[in-house]
Amino acid sequence: MDIYWKSSYYPDHMRSDATRETLMFHAKHFNKMTDFWLQAEKCQILTSSGHTQQEIANQLGISRAEVSHLIRFNRLTPEVVKLLKKHAISRTHIRLLVTVSSYHQQKYLIGQIINKGLSTRSLKEVINLLSQKSELELLELPADELNRALALRLGLPVIIKPSEQKDKESGIIALSYKNKDDYKLIIRKLLAD
Fold first, then answer.
1. Spatial contact of 137 and 126, defined as CB atoms under 8 Å apart
2. What's the structural domain count of the chain?
3. Per-residue pLDDT band at 54 (split at 50, 70, 90)
4. Which residues sit opposite 11 in a β-bridge?
5. Least packed by Cβ within 10 Å: which of 1, 39, 44, 163?
6. How many CA atoms lie within 13 A of 80 on its CB side?
């Protein structure tokens, strides 16, 4: 019997009174993701040793295109990689996350993937929204859409509450932070202009 059959070997988010089939499915996915990160680390070592992508592909037994993806994954910050490993985020999600340059936006999107079960299609739509909207377009959005767009741009939770009085054009914008890094990010963004 495979040791991964026991639920105690799973990360916290995978533990439950699931059936044997469900546990085996998660064990295979967890093992694939572990193998994936090992391949990414091997790829990084071989790349820094001066090997070409084709040589690495031949050595690891994967396609050259996959080597290219693995090299890009090594651009992620250690904190983001730690989150991705902890929650066993899929390769296709990771391929999309790599295209986002901001660490805070990546962290926010990972939270959306974990907490809301964001599919790869939805993630792609969110990333496209993130890159396409200009400042003028953002100002024209309704409060709920602006709330989402700002949260994506900042990588932090944003609350926009328009005034309940119809004749007033006032309201409240609140930025939320969970740690000192998020706090510093908010202050830097506010002082940027």
1. no
2. 1
3. very high
4. none
5. 1
6. 21
Judge whether 193 lies within some domain: no
**How many angstroms separate the Cα of 60 from the Cα of each of 36, 55, 116, 129?**
11, 9, 35, 36
The domain containing residue 49 runs over which residues?
A: 1-74
Residue 27 lies in a domain: yes
The tokens describing 96, both together, are 């999309």
- The tokens for 68 are 């290219």
> Looking at the chain, how many residues does it have?
193
Q: How far apart are CA 115 and CA 96, in angstroms?
A: 17
| 10 within domain boundaries | yes
Per-residue pLDDT tens over the stretch 91-116: 889 989 998 888 888 888 888 888 88
Determine the Cα–Cα distance for residues 123 and 193; give it in Å rounded to an integer.
Answer: 30
CA–CA–CA angle 70, 76, 132 (5° rounding): 100
CA-to-CA distance for 57 and 24, rounded, in angstroms? Answer: 29
